[in-house]
Amino acid sequence: MATATGAFGWMADAGAGVPPKGTRVGLAFIVSVILAVLGILGYFAVIPVMTPNAYWLLLAGYVVLAIGVLFKGK
Question: Tens-of-pLDDT digits for all 74 residues of the chain?
Fold first, then answer.
């Protein structure tokens, strides 16, 4: 049943993964997004350097993101 805040109002209350206002986006997140975008571009478009390495670019982006999350604040 929908509440006054909508069907997914509990997500808004929990934050739904959205960082609070005023927080900086980490360098690891930005690097991981860039690597992921390059990997996706390499998968869907024939780019000589990226196409053979599309999987590895995506994996590297995920690893960078995981390391950034694990060592956050240390």
Answer: 555 555 555 555 555 555 555 555 688 888 899 999 999 999 999 988 888 999 999 999 999 988 888 887 66
Alpha-carbon distance of 68 to 17, in angstroms, equals 16
Q: Structural domain boundaries of the chain?
A: 24-70
- The span from the CA of 2 to the CA of 18, in Å, is 22
**Whole-structure pTM over 0.85, yes or no?**
no
Secondary structure letter of residue 3 according to DSSP = B
Any alpha helices (H) in the chain, and if so which ranges? 9-14, 27-44, 54-70
Q: What is the DSSP letter of 6?
A: B
